[in-house]
Amino acid sequence: MSETTVGVGDPFPDLTLPTLDGDDLRFSERRGTKLVLYLWGSW
Amino acid sequence: MPGWQHFSQAHAAADFSLVSVAIDHAGPEAARPFVEAAGATFPTVVDRYGTLSRLLGFKAVPNGVLVDEDGTIRWTKFGGFSIDDRDDAAVVERFLRGEEPGPSPTDPAPYRLGPLERELVETKLRLGHLLLDAGQGAEAVAAWRGALRLDPENLTIRKQIWAAEHPAKFHPTIDFGWQKGQLAAERAAEVAAGVCGPDGCPLPAPLAGADAPPPSPAD
């Protein structure tokens, strides 16, 4: 890991990504509840 | 994906958010069929430029990331993560119960990419998508190849180039055997050409995912 990647113990990046429905999901707005992320690709 | 829908329903009483993140340079339309086929009721976001792969430092999927109520990353598994796997599911369930999820598996193939390199990779990926949207497919692939030269271990970029250049290998079904052969051939050519990555050259081996089970959107 370089110094600039984040990992266990670090805050999850405050990223905003589009949902399939066309809305924006901002990860920091999910704070206050546990977040389970599943990262995948269709390829 | 069906496994996650089942998990989501089985744990409906638990207080957590499940979000699926499609690392998909082809955009939402590539991810949508899998989400719809699974009848997923949880949100899917699309990381079209692979931003998370550079922020978290992974170069293949499927991955799991657990984040606590304070927004702190508590557990990660890069490569081979599946909710249909008994051990992986047990980790997630421990986390949802408020217990320690346990140590994170070591990334089988971490990579180092500095902030400037990451920014350049992302810029080239974005340029490729703009070109693609403008109908300039060949130029788009050239831009992606520029990104791959900087980030040669990144399978998410490499597979996207393959999908653009060899669509028959991806639709209607994905030919993972072909991918394996293609990866081996490209790696050999890159090593011969002295392609350098952030870890030096030639390419460090093995690439993540090359020998692991292929990423499966079906899990």
Cα separation of the termini of chain B: 5 Å
The unreliable regions of chain B are 200-215
Note the total helix count of chain A. 0
Q: Calculate Rg of chain B over CA atoms.
A: 18 Å
> In what range is the share of β-strand residues of chain B?
5-15%
Q: Averaged pLDDT of chain A, please?
A: 89
Q: Roughly what fraction of the amino acids of chain A lie in strands?
A: 25-35%
- Cα(first) to Cα(last) distance of chain A is 25 Å
Average of pLDDT of chain B: 85
**What is the helical fraction of chain B, as a range of percent?**
40-55%
Q: Give, in order, the helices and strands of chain A.
A: EEE
Q: Helix/strand/pairing class of chain A, anyone?
A: mainly beta
Tell me the radius of gyration of chain A.
13 Å
Beta strand count of chain A: 3
Count interface residues per chain for the largest interface: A-B, 35 and 70 residues
Q: What count of helical segments of chain B does DSSP give?
A: 8
Tell me the series of helices and strands of chain B, N- to C-terminal: HEHEHEEHHHHH
Query: What is the oligomeric state here?
Result: heterodimer
Please outline the major beta sheet of chain A: 2 strands, antiparallel
Strand order of the largest sheet of chain A: 1-2
Give a count of the beta strands of chain B, DSSP E runs of length 2 or more. 4
List the helices and strands and how they pair.
The complex is a heterodimer of chains A (43) and B (219).
Chain A: E1 16-18, E2 24-26, E3 34-40
Antiparallel strand pairs in A: 1-2
Chain B: H1 2-10, E1 16-22, H2 28-38, E2 44-46, H3 51-56, E3 63-67, E4 73-78, H4 86-96, H5 115-133, H6 137-150, H7 155-165, H8 176-193
Parallel strand pairs in B: 1-2
Antiparallel strand pairs in B: 3-4
Helix pairs in contact in B: 5-6, 6-7
